[in-house]
């Protein structure tokens, strides 16, 4: 399957004026990993208080975990939280009873925050613009929340997500609604056409609810 290039059209999504988020969104398309890493390393200590505040009202993590549960992924499953950041998804996974969760992220400083949540079995620095350094068919489920957005990671990563989950494994990824047409929908449909996945859902749901920003909750089951 040929990779789909990420668009570099200017970001128009509401950032509520936050300087780090504005800088990230202005990168457009698939941003330079070194620049992205630097922004998140500086933002890590205040990320949770900023993004969960009223200006942003970040609800993506709980939305994704609910989708994973609805898809029938049991608490005994081995989960990869790709782009785990400070561990907000890991906290909700732990609350839902998941105990075998690995996290990967570009930013070492964000991973240090994630470690403090005690929600992960293993944490590792990984650049999602490259191949994920794990064998095929390792995980029962995968979450990716907050990473498929302006200036971050392009649609090619969806194929990597499919590769690292087992047959019948479930992938739940939030895709910012403003970039869904920038290759993500096409990549999703191609994965289904190639009979690699069954698409279980692509609903538009609140994401940064306080800023009026929505995302697709993409749910796929690997064949």
Number of strands: 7
Name the strands of the widest sheet in spatial order.
3-2-1-4-5-7-6
Low-confidence stretches: 1-10
- Please identify which CATH superfamily we are dealing with: Vaccinia Virus protein VP39
**Mean residue pLDDT:** 94
| Binned strand content | 25-35%
Helix content: 25-40%
Q: Which geometry do the CA atoms define?
A: globular
The helix/strand series, from N terminus to C terminus, equals HHHHEHEHEEHEHEE
CATH class: Alpha Beta
- Tell me the domain tally: 1
Instruction: Please state the CA-atom Rg, rounded to the nearest Å.
Output: 16 Å
Per CATH, the architecture is 3-Layer(aba) Sandwich
Number of helices: 8
Reported for the largest beta sheet, the result is: 7 strands, mixed
The structure class reads alpha/beta
CATH names the topology as Rossmann fold
Distance between the termini: 16 Å
Domain Methyltransferase type: 80-172
InterPro entries: Methyltransf_11, SAM-dependent_MTases_sf
Pfam families: Methyltransf_11
GO molecular function: S-adenosylmethionine-dependent methyltransferase activity
Provide an overview of this structure.
It comes from Cutaneotrichosporon cavernicola. GO terms for molecular function: S-adenosylmethionine-dependent methyltransferase activity. This is Methyltransferase type 11 domain-containing protein. Helix content is 33%, strand content 26%. With 223 residues, the chain is of the alpha/beta class. It has a single domain, classed as Rossmann fold, CATH 3.40.50.150. The protein has a 7-stranded mixed beta sheet, sandwiched between helices. A hairpin with a 4-residue loop joins strand 6 and strand 7. The protein is globular and about 40 Å long.
């Amino acid at each position: 399957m040929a990779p789909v290039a990420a668009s570099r059209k200017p970001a128009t999504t509401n950032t509520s004026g936050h300087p780090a988020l504005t800088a990230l969104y202005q990168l457009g398309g698939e941003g330079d990993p070194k620049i992205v890493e630097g922004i998140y390393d500086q933002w890590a200590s205040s990320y949770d208080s900023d993004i969960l505040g009223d200006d942003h009202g970040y609800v993506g993590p709980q939305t994704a975990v609910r989708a994973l549960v609805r898809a029938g992924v049991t608490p005994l499953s081995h989960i990869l939280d790709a782009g785990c950041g400070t561990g907000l998804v890991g906290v909700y996974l732990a609350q839902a009873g998941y105990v075998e969760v690995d996290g990967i992220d570009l930013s070492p400083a964000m991973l240090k925050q994630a470690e403090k949540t005690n929600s992960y079995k293993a944490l590792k620095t990984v650049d999602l613009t490259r191949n994920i350094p794990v064998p095929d068919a390792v995980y029962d489920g995968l979450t990716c929340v907050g990473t498929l957005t302006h200036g971050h990671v392009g649609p090619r990563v969806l194929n990597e997500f499919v590769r690292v989950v087992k047959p019948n494994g479930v992938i739940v990824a939030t895709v910012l609604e403003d970039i869904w047409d920038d290759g993500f929908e096409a990549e999703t449909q191609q994965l289904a056409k190639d009979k690699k996945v069954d698409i279980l859902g692509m609903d538009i749901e609140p994401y940064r609810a306080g800023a009026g920003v929505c995302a697709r909750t993409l749910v796929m089951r690997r064949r």
